[in-house]
Amino acid sequence: MNAQPDTEQLNTKESIQKSILENLLYMQGKSEKMATRNDWYMAVAYMLKDRLIKNWVRALETMELNKIKMVGYLSAEFLMGPHLGNAMINLGIENQVREAVAELGLDFHEIISQEEEPGLGNGGLGRLAACYLDSLATVGVPAIGYGIRYEFGIFDQKITDGWQEEVTDKWLRLGNPWEIPRPELTYEVKFGGHTESYSDQNGKYRVRWIPDMKVEGVAYDTPVPGYKNGMVNLLRLWKSEASESFDFGAFNKGDYYGAVDKKIISETISKILYPNDELPKGKRLRLSQQYFFVSCSLQDVLRIQTLRKISLDQMPEMIALQLNDTHPSIAVAELMRLLIDYHDYDWDKAWSITQNTLSYTNHTLLPEALEKWSLPLFRELLPRHLEIIYEINQRYINDIKKNFPNDDLLIQHISLVDERGEKSVRMANLATIGSHAVNGVSALHTELLKRDLLADFNKISPSKFHNVTNGVTPRRWIKLYNPKLAELISSKIGEKWITHMEDELVKLKAYADDKDFLARFREIKLMNKTALANRIKQNLGISVNPDSLFDIQVKRFHEYKRQHLNLFYILTLYNRIKKNKEYPAVPRTFIFGGKAAPGYAMAKLIIKLINNTAALINQDPELSDHMKLIFYPDFNVKNSEWIYRAADLSEQISTAGKEASGTGNMKFSMNGALTIGTLDGANVEIREQVGKENFFLFGATVEEISSLQSGGYDPYSYYQNNVELRGVIDLLGSEQLTGGNSHLFEPLVQSLLSHDPYFLLHDYQSYIDCQQQVSNTFGNQALWTKMSVHNVAAMGKFSSDRSIRDYCSKIWNINP
Fold first, then answer.
1. To pair with 329 at 20 to 30 A between CA atoms, which of 91, 241, 362, 387?
2. How far apart are CA 190 and CA 192, in angstroms?
3. Given the residues 663, 675, 678, 777, the one annotated as active site
4. Residues 313, 305 contacting (CB under 8 angstroms)
């Protein structure tokens, strides 16, 4: 799939300018004088999409007409980030576009900042899926990413009186120039009702599903270009619509609401990302979403197999379907249903096809994060699938009993139905049983997965388990978002690192003692910090010192990620400086960012505590030379451009054994930040790569945590015996932080003192001591810069291109 011969002529500055103006006129219906900034953005975006179309159409032909193995990546999230800059970089026409836009009298930065962030994901899970789509195209693997076209994203975050406020994310309100609707690709999805058994004309036992509701899934395609290789894969998202949008009978009888009732109910399915599932209605909608996009996707996969004139018997040889976490795990039962009920396969053959086609990525070590659905809900919504799950379960258990007789506890653990309390379907078990391969996302996570979370399945089928450490794309996270650093790297080792980072980036180590290189590296970091400082001043009205240590923690808010441990260090510094005005503190700018789930009260309380602490610190003139605390609202891919490249210190401080991998840790290190962290997730491998002398390590290990748990952990004793810790916790009830409501942070305090599930109090002193090492090292800028260069040079392993090559060799059996 090489670029067409006329590509060079198409990509001249003059041709690009002409295309922009034509799109402004013919797509936007505006003249240059009438055009708004959004009109200009849309015109530039359409210009870039035009240049992707030829390769895109050829890619579709390749996937649909040629007999080569492809990948279907099923994910509830795709946090793609803005498309314009990425498309420009991957097409290799960044300079021409910038020149063309400038000669039209436009501000390029205004144009690129106009793009709305596609609201298709929440955090690391969705961003990983986006990086993987980029890498699949770049390394040359034909692929389709399958998900939901959410009308509204997770939410936009505002901070009001220190509290997180959720605002509707209307990311589609001004249009989306990158997608192409495919109304000809529409699939029926059933819900509810009941099943009927019957015998067909050959006397074969069959089951018919009689639903009480049907919706249609309509495809919307978005191009995903590889880096300068002419290859374009696609992201195919499903929008839910009613089979009949308008009921004339109801309307004519005066039932005006009833006339559109089915349309409203059907479209709700793809309305919003991750509805609050605390209430039964939320759980029902979330399961409906998962089944909806999985059913559409699998029906589409079977259509493509038919188009390619490939027997469904050959599916495992022609397509690999990856389940990105438990959200798409209903695919096991749905593929069985389609093969048995619609394509007349017997059970054993259908099971062989299903199991050998599907593979499952687990992303969590938290048992509560493994989805389970109550049997009554499952029976009401997906009655046919529950029958299939019962059958899978019984056959699997019967097989296991042959090799593990009288092991009732093993059977209890592996069963697809949890019999304890309210009976429920275990989706992680379904994904594990129904896949030929299961992978963790870091070396530590995979080992803990095999040892603890899925230990029984590992006992039964150890060869099924693999590790594929996560990665991130260097195209967006360095070349696009840190262009000066990318230029510096390329000036020394060439540009091959952009697509072969794992082999090439290590060559930078040769410059770790080069004074000119280090000076330029330091200059770029200061430039990036100054840009972020200006943005903070512009958006939040707070002045920060670019020469200070930028200490940053940006990620989803959760107690196990321990943003409050970071805050405890800040409050410790505050207490030290207030007691001793001569305290030798290295100036720091602390920056937090991230969202808390709307129903997660403790995470939202931690955000409130951060903002109250920021108000206390930032308004105190005695602290102005020592520290500033910033909460950066609505952290997402778009504004992460300013964050990652400006960081001096990356906070990766989760409790050991809780973070599966992390990808923010990789983005920070790639951009020259040093890490303070525990031996958790991919931190372990990052430390191995960069060297222990270039990583600030603290905290209990997984083994030590396990020992504390079994030995009877007493968090209150740490409060009693550590004067500085006690001073911090007592401060949480003070007038200074609570504004007179002394009980405001009591839930957090009580949780820590009575239970401390994530061992914050245990790790507190180790963290405080490690932060002192950070300060001492930052005081020696030559050493700090050298350590930063070693971090960048060692990040080759954490390219998503390497991750995809690992999937190809270990799991998918594909030659890129």
1. 241
2. 7
3. 663
4. no
- 372, 445, 626, 667: the catalytic one is 667
Q: Which of 262, 555, 595, 786 is catalytic?
A: 555
Whether 30 is catalytic: no
Which residue of the set 283, 363, 525, 608 is catalytic? 363
Least confident span in 10-14, 55-59, 349-353: 55-59
| pLDDT value of residue 276 | 62
Query: How far apart, in whole angstroms, are the C-alpha atoms of residue 528 and residue 712?
Result: 47
pLDDT of residue 431: 98
Question: Which entry of 561, 604, 626, 805 is annotated as an active-site residue?
Answer: 561
Q: How far apart are CA 625 and CA 585, in angstroms?
A: 9
Query: Are 243 and 155 contacting, i.e. CB atoms less than 8 angstroms apart?
Result: no
Handedness of CA 450, 453, 455, 456 (dihedral sign): negative
* Sequence-ordered list of residues with C-beta below 8 angstroms from that of 566, at least 6 positions apart, any chain: 553, 590, 592, 651, 653
CB-based contacts of 188, cutoff 8 Å, min separation 6: 214, 215, 216, 243
Q: How many other CB atoms are there within 10 angstroms of residue 158's CB atom? A: 12
What is the rounded distance in angstroms from the CA atom of residue 660 to the CA atom of residue 444? 8
Task: Judge whether 561 counts as a catalytic residue.
Answer: yes
741-797 tens-digit pLDDT: 999 999 999 999 999 999 999 999 999 999 999 999 999 999 999 999 999 999 999
Structure tokens that stand for 26 in this block: 């013919």
Q: What single-letter amino acid sits at 663? A: T
Beta strands 437-440 and 156-160, pairing class: unpaired
Residue 336 in contact with residue 390, Cβ under 8 Å? no
Location of structure tokens 């599903």: 209
Helix axes 124-139, 800-807, angle to 10 degrees: 70
Q: Is 810 a catalytic residue?
A: no
Chain-centroid distance of CA 725 in Å reads 34
Amino acid at 437: A
Q: Residue 384 catalytic? A: no
Q: Over 60: is that where the pLDDT of 592 sits?
A: yes
Burial pattern 618-642, b for ≥16 Cβ within 10 A else e, equals beeeebeebbbbbbbbbbbbbbbbb
Helix residue ranges, H only, 202-358: 248-252, 256-259, 261-268, 280-307, 315-318, 331-337, 347-357
pLDDT for residue 76? 96
Q: Please tell me whether residue 86 adopts helix, strand or coil conformation.
A: helix
Q: Is 663 considered catalytic here?
A: yes
Length of the chain (residues): 816
Of 348, 361, 290, 349, the residue nearest 321 (C-alpha): 361
**36 classed as catalytic:** no
Q: What is the pTM of this model?
A: 0.96
Q: What is the pLDDT of residues 474-516, one digit of tens each?
A: 999 999 999 999 999 999 999 999 999 999 999 999 999 999 9
Catalytic residue among 556, 558, 626, 762: 556
The neighbouring-strand residues paired with 180 are 221
